[in-house]
């Protein structure tokens, strides 16, 4: 009996990922390349390279806010080139199959549900912890079609302005970008740190991996930065727990690599803050699909929608 | 053709409300009395007074966190007497009909969906704005079985401790309790205000109605307190909008009476903070059922559950 296949596309960060995915979440072929301004052309070319005779459709997970009525992205500060363009119609015209659009973190949540760390949970929240913080919510086994912009929840109402327009967003305290910016500003003030010696002499090239590595070597500045970021992530976790009472929170993205300091601190802080009974019922665990969650989830949009027996577009 | 009926119970605040409700949300009989420590006895007596020959079940909306597995309330700081007791089994034994338990604000959200301001919306959030702040979420027409403790979302991560254990909860900035406490502390410091003359000479008897009334008379302190509370409510609204992208936010509870200052300020603040496209798509409107939303919603738990064809308990 042959499997069902779909193309999953992840336009989440600086890379474009395109894969051929089976209904059970297995990836058969995968392409990764830097994303360009020519998004549609680049996607079409990539799909051409891995095309399969019998794909059932194409699913696209992208950074930004998805307008589910107009089937477009209306706001995507980290990927402006996707805003407003009708990529869905273009792909549909080119490949003659149904095309579905979702936010990238939402798609990743669906991926974890279908074949990752979320398999055993009915209701969970996925957080992507990278240069920015994104979220996706699975409720009773299904993806909630909501913005889930958890990184842009204000946790310091009167604090600094976030590029999104809000003030004191979680993103400004607990993302890699926020922690790097904090480390750099401490270094600029002359704080001693092992970070000075890494990154080829320029403190402006520091990465979150540098911070975690030096923290493990005992660097005070790096430990402080990671623990502070983790503490604020914990504020976000407690808010999620108090509002959504999920069975699990699944953490994905590069910062999961800093689990032993950053995430541990977050869990400790959340345990102090969230309603005790709700905290005791939630499991906080790492993603099991890593970078593949987005493409798998995007492909699963196709199977999910087609199994609903919606009239095809 | 005869209608279907259920008993709806609202154990939300200081009062116990019990009503006979038809499936379309119509209230046929209603009892309201102060809640006592003898919760179960009091409920049984009230149901006896309005009992109907053919009720299909009993729905109970109560303050606190509901454990949906054990069918109990595990934490209810404002109604300790309900914690841990097996009211569901007791009512089922006494009346021989199915009994369903929900959080009171969740039940109110369901009530607004069935026959109130939420009728025309698929996805909305209901906020109860009273001495405390509660929430309930309707997604694609159905009640999300989640805690929805939106009042206990931290919006000032490093601020004062909330009685719930978290720090800087929305409840501590935007509830009636918070605003009254702010007004009292300003009066204690000697700030001039019309509030001094009302409330029979004791500033410790001030109500949120006093604050709104004197604010309308031009009192500076009262206007300031309401505007500040409204501003923080706006922070909460923006967080809800960014995370849940609802079609509407429905505001219920006593503070809705202070719409022209408090809620207007909240809407202004939310418009500054939330993602513009999401803010532009949300309607922020008052509840249309008022105090009846909870009992109607509680009764609707019965119809909702029975229409699912669940095996009866």
Report on this model:
Chain A has about 325 residues and is α/β, with parallel strands linked by helices. The first copy, chain A, folds into two domains: about 110 residues, 2-Layer Sandwich (Nucleotidyltransferase, domain 5), CATH 3.30.420; about 170 residues, ATPase, nucleotide binding domain (Nucleotidyltransferase, domain 5). In chain A, the strands form three sheets. In chain A, strands 3-2-1-4-7 form a five-stranded mixed beta sheet, sandwiched between helices. In chain A, strand 2 and strand 3 form a beta hairpin. In chain A, helix 3 crosses helix 10, helix 5 runs antiparallel to helix 7 and helix 6 crosses helix 7. Chains A and B meet through helix 7 and helix 9 of A and helix 7 and helix 9 of B.
SSE arrangement:
Two copies of one chain form a homodimer.
Chain A: E1 5-11, E2 15-22, E3 27-34, H1 39-50, E4 55-62, E5 65-67, E6 72-75, H2 87-95, E7 99-103, H3 104-115, E8 124-129, E9 133-139, E10 142-143, H4 171-174, H5 176-188, H6 208-216, H7 220-244, E11 248-252, H8 259-273, H9 276-280, E12 283-286, H10 293-307
Parallel strand pairs in A: 1-4, 4-7, 8-11, 11-12
Antiparallel strand pairs in A: 1-2, 2-3, 5-6, 8-9, 9-10
Helix pairs in contact in A: 3-10, 5-7, 6-7, 7-8
């Amino acid at each position: 009996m042959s499997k069902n296949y779909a193309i999953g596309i992840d336009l989440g960060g600086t890379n474009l990922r395109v894969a051929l995915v089976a209904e059970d979440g297995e990836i058969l072929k995968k392409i990764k390349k830097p994303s360009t301004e020519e998004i549609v052309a680049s996607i079409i070319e990539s799909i051409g390279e891995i095309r399969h005779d019998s794909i059932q459709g194409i699913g696209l997970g992208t950074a930004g806010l998805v307008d589910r009525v107009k089937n477009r992205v209306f706001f995507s500060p980290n990927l402006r080139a996707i805003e407003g363009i009708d990529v869905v119609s273009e792909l549909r015209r080119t490949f003659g199959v149904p095309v579905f659009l979702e936010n990238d973190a939402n798609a990743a949540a669906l991926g974890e549900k279908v074949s990752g760390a979320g398999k055993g949970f009915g209701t969970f929240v996925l957080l992507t912890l990278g240069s920015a913080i994104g979220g996706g919510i699975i409720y009773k086994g299904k993806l909630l079609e909501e913005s889930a912009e958890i990184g842009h929840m204000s946790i310091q109402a009167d604090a600094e302005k976030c590029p999104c327009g809000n003030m004191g967003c979680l993103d400004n305290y607990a993302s890699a970008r926020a922690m790097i910016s904090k480390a750099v500003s401490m270094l600029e003030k002359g704080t001693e740190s092992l970070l000075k010696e890494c990154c080829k002499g320029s403190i402006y090239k520091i990465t979150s991996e540098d911070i975690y590595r030096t923290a493990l070597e005992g660097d005070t500045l790096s430990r402080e930065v990671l623990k502070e970021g983790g503490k604020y992530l914990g504020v976000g976790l407690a808010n999620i727990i108090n509002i959504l009472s999920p069975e699990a929170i699944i953490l994905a993205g590069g910062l999961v690599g800093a689990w032993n300091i950053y995430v541990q601190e977050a869990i400790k802080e959340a345990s102090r803050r969230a309603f005790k009974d709700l905290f005791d019922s939630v499991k906080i665990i790492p993603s099991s699909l890593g970078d593949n969650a987005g493409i798998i989830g995007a492909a699963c949009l196709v199977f999910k929608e087609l199994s609903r027996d919606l009239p095809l577009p």
